[in-house]
Amino acid sequence: MQNEIWFRPLVWMDYRLAVLFTVVIPLVLLIWAFVQKAEAIQRLLAIYWRVACLLAITVYLFIGSLSVGFVSGFLARLLIPISVWFWIDLNEEIDDQPPSPLKLVFTSWRWAVTIYGILGALAQLPFLQCVGSKTALASPFCHVWLEPTSLYAYYVHPHSKPQFLGFLGLVGLTIYTLCFLYFVFVKLGKQGRSAIQQ
User: Fold this and answer.
1) Which helix (H) or strand (E) holds 182?
2) What does the alpha-carbon distance between residue 55 and residue 23 come to, in Å, rounded to a whole number?
3) String of b and e for 89-99 (b: at least 16 CB within 10 Å)?
4) Could you give the CA distance from residue 125 to residue 118 in angstroms, rounded to a whole number?
5) Contact (CB, 8 A) for 52 and 22
6) How many CB atoms lie within 10 A of CB 26?
7) Rounded to a whole number, what is the distance in angstroms from the first to the last CA of the chain?
8) How far apart are CA 105 and CA 101, in angstroms?
9) Lowest mean pLDDT: which of 3-7, 50-54, 162-166, 167-171?
10) Integer CA distances (angstroms), 91 to 45, 88, 94, 106, 111, in order
11) Which of 21, 49, 68, 141, by CA, is between 20 and 30 Å from 78?
12) What pLDDT does residue 198 have?
């Protein structure tokens, strides 16, 4: 029955694109910015990594077959584009930098990850119905999103139980939520859209 899921190749492609756009390229950019001493890009990427760790949390929630992963994954796709454009001071610093290969690649990646995040969030909307129902989560329609994370767990955590990894995901989600609430209700009011205090 699972073989009847027509969008399975798209789900696997989405995970591959996520690795490329949200892990590999920003990691290369961070190293490049460090070597070039591009502080504004370094700061923006540091903020990006804090936000993007929600995707890693989502992977562990899915390994544990926890449907809240659909919510965290959806929110991560929205928060990532916001995180790379939100900071007025960093945007101005980056815009004022002279043209360079780093600036060109960084700007291209910002637009690419923004488009990827928005399209991914729209594509995830139908799957929010998988949240809160074990019956729905067990259906091929929902379960197809858990398949790539099971393969990841098989290779990266071969001796760990999925329930334990899911628990780690819940702990990570709790910490992430508390930090996010602190930022929204305390720091954002003090600093606004300035990243100087980040």
Assistant:
1) helix 162-182
2) 10
3) bbbebbeeeee
4) 11
5) yes
6) 23
7) 49
8) 6
9) 3-7
10) 12, 5, 5, 12, 13
11) 141
12) 46
Instruction: Tokens for 152, please give them.
Output: 């990841």
User: What is the DSSP annotation of 65-90?
Assistant: T-THHHHHHHHHHHHHHHHHH--HHH
Residue with tokens 């259906």: 139
CB atoms within 10 A of CB 108: 11
Question: Of the candidates 15, 41, 13, which has an alpha carbon nearest to the alpha carbon of residue 28?
Answer: 41
Q: What is the rounded distance in angstroms from the CA atom of residue 198 to the CA atom of residue 191?
A: 9
Residue type, position 49, single letter: W
And the tokens for 110? 């910002």
Query: Among candidates 148, 173, 194, 156, which has minimal Cα distance to 72?
Result: 173
- What is the token pair recorded at 44? 């923006």
pLDDT at 132: 84
Residue 19 and residue 149: Cα distance in Å, rounded? 12
One-letter amino acid at 22 equals: T
Q: Concatenated DSSP letters for 33-69?
A: HHHHT-HHHHHHHHHHHHHHHHHHHHHHHHHTT-THH
Residues 102-138 pLDDT 10s: 999 999 999 999 999 999 999 999 999 999 877 888 8
Q: How far is CA 52 from CA 47, 113, 122, in A?
A: 9, 11, 18
